[in-house]
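agent> Task received from the user: take the single chain below, predict its 3D structure, and emit C-alpha cells. No templates, no multimer pairing.
agent> Plan: (1) validate residues, (2) run structure prediction, (3) serialize to C-alpha cells, (4) report one or two observations.
agent> Step 1 OK, no nonstandard residues flagged.
tool_call: predict_structure(input=
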Amino acid sequence: MSQQHAFQRTDRSALGLWWWTTDHLLLGATVVLILLGVILQFGTSPAAAVRLGIAWPFHFAARQCVFAAMGAIAVLAVSLLSPRGVRRVALGVYLVSIAAMVLLPFFGHVAKGAGRWVDIAGFTLQPSEFMKPALIVLVAWMFAEARKGVIPGVSIAFFLYFLAVALLLMEPDVGQTILITAAFGAAFWVAGVPTLWVLALGGFSVAGLAGAYFAFPHVSSRVQVFLHHDKSSGPTQVHAAAEAIAAGGAFGRGPGEGIMKLQIPDMHTDFAFSAAAEEYGLWLSLMIIFVFALLVIRGLYKAMRLSDPFEQIAAAGLFVLVGMQAFINVAVNLALIPTKGMTLPFISYGGSSLLGMGLTMGMALALTRRRPGAYLPTDPFARAAALG
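)
tool_result: status=success, residues=388
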C-alpha cells in the first residue's frame, strides 16, 4: 500500500498549498522546539510553584501548554500569508507595539526593576517581543524600496530602528536592544549597503554598549558581578546555571531530579537550558543547539536564494533574530557573558516569548515558501540571467 499523506499534491486548498510549499525542515525544527519547551516545563514547574507559593505544582507547565498551542496557531496562521500580507501584519504589529511601549511608563507592570509588561485580563504581555519581528520586516521593506529610488527607504528604516531603541532603553531593556541591533545590522548587510556603513553601525553599537554600562546601574552591576564574582559569597544565577550544566554530565540526573532549580529563581524562564542540561545531560543540550543551528542555517540558505530583495532581506533578518536570541541565552547559561534577561526561543516559559517567536517563525516560513519565481534558478547561467 502506498503511504497516505494528510494532504495530496493535487489538494488546492489553502492548507494543502501551505503544506506543499512550506519548508518541512524549518517547520519540523520549530515543532520540535515547541514540544521540548512543553516537556521541560514539567521538570521545572514544581520548584517554581513552591517558590512563588502556588499550590498546584504543574501550574507553569499547564500554562506553557496553552502558550505553546497559541504559539503554534500563530506560526500556522502567519505562515499562510503572502509576502504582501506579511508586510501588512508587520506594520500593524509595529504600530500597536510601539504605542504600547510608549504607554508603559504610565500603565506598565514593573518587575525586577523594569517596566516592560502590560497587564491584560490577568496575563502580562511584553510588547517588545512582538515589535522585534515587525521591525525587521519593515526595515527590510524600506531597504528594498530604497533600491528603487522612489522613497528615502534607508532614512525611514533608521528612524523605525532608533524609535524602537529609544523606547527599549526607557524600560530599560539593554538585552533586547542588543538583539534588534544585531538583526538590524544583518538586514542592513544583506541589503547590500556599503561596507563602511556596516562598520559605522558596528562602531555605534560598541559605543552604545559602553554607554549602557555607565548609564544603567543594573548593567554595570551585572558586568561587575560576572567579572569579579567571589564564589565564597554564594552562587549568582549565571554561575549556578553553569554549575547545573556541569552537574548534569553526559546523561543527566534524571527527569525532575535537578536540584539547582531550587536555587535559581529563573530556572523555568531564562535558564531553561541549564535545567535541561542538569536533568537530561549533554546529549539534550547538544540536540537543542543542533536544532537551532539547523533552523538558522537552513533558513539563511533559503533566504539567500530568494529572488525578491524584500523577501530575501526580511527572511535573513528574521532567522538572524532567532539565532542571536538563542546564542545569547545559551552563552549566558554557560557563564560566557553577563545575564541579559533573555528567553530561549520556544523553550523558556512565557506567553509573550512564545507568541512573539510564533509570529517571527510564521513570517519567516511565509517568506520562504515556494511560489512561482520566488527562488533564483540553481543553474549558474540561468541564475546570472535572472540577476540581470
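agent> Step 4: summary for the user.
The radius of gyration is 21 Å.
agent> Done.
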